[in-house]
Amino acid sequence: MKGMNGRLRVLAIVLAFSLLLIMSTGAASVLADSQGGISPTPNSPAADTNVWQVLKTRSTSLLWDVWGSSGGEAFAVGDYGTLLDFNGNGWSTIPSGTANGIYSIWGSAANDIFGVGYLGTIIHFNGSKWSTMSSGTTDCFLGVWGTASNNVYAVGDGGTIMHYDGKTWSEIPSGTKYSLYGVWGLSPDDVYIYGSCSLLIHWDGSAWKSLIGDLEGA
To answer: Whose CA, among 21, 119, 132, 162, lies 20 to 30 Å from 170?
Structure first.
């Protein structure tokens, strides 16, 4: 699958990026590992303040990403549609509605969470149930992030950038064919996307521009 040949490299990038976000926002209290285990961050009530611990999930799937709300609940996603829920005491597997891999997860609130992955898969949680959404693409998504429920970005293979306005997903030209691994920003007019070949592009509210690397990719 295009963009996924370097899975372990992407996993390292994704987890490092997630750790950076967790450290900067304090929103989540757990990290996913590659063996189906979950490690609480030092400020988690389940962990000693000076020691990392591993919480077993009973899942054997490779986990790719994790997101948590300020209310203490967290979700982890992974291969084969794996979706895990942490309720403050332990992890449980819940139906995701798809058998496709889910590689990234983000939410604007505990009742508005998006998961994205293989073949353009998008799942959404409205606070009571998870459901699939139509993305309009079969490109693999590798990252998702937003500023609000009506301003969400999903990025992935072939330079794919999709935007959600609260109603529908639509494609945004990125100017590149390189795979895009992750997206994050400070505001609606200050969004960053990183990809293969050290590519880093930025949205300033009017246009996407390359900060590092050449947009012309194969």
So the answer is: 21
What residue ranges define each of the domains in the chain, with the CATH number in brackets?
A: 7-190 (2.130.10.10)
Give the dihedral of Cα atoms 200, 205, 206, 212; nearest 10 deg: -10
Residue 20's φ and ψ, nearest 5 degrees, are -60, -45
Task: Say what the pTM is.
Answer: 0.77
| Residue numbers in the chain where pLDDT is lower than 70 | 1-49, 217-218
How much is the pLDDT for 217? 55
pLDDT at 42: 46
Residue 39 φ/ψ, nearest 5 degrees = -110, 125
- How far, in Å, CA of 28 to CA of 41, rounded? 8
- Nearest alpha carbon to residue 65 among 119, 123, 135, 111: 123
Helix then strand count (H, E) for the chain reads 1, 19
Whether the CB-CB separation of 100 and 118 falls below 8 Å is answered with yes
Please state the length of the chain.
Answer: 218
CB atoms within 10 A of CB 24: 9
Structural tokens at position 46: 């389940």
The CA-based diameter of the chain, rounded to the nearest angstrom, is 48
**Region of 11 on the Ramachandran plot (φ > 0 left; ψ -120 to 50 alpha; else beta):** alpha
Q: How far apart are the first and last CA of the chain?
A: 15
Cα gap 114→132, rounded to integer Å:
10
* Both tokens assigned to 102: 């889910």
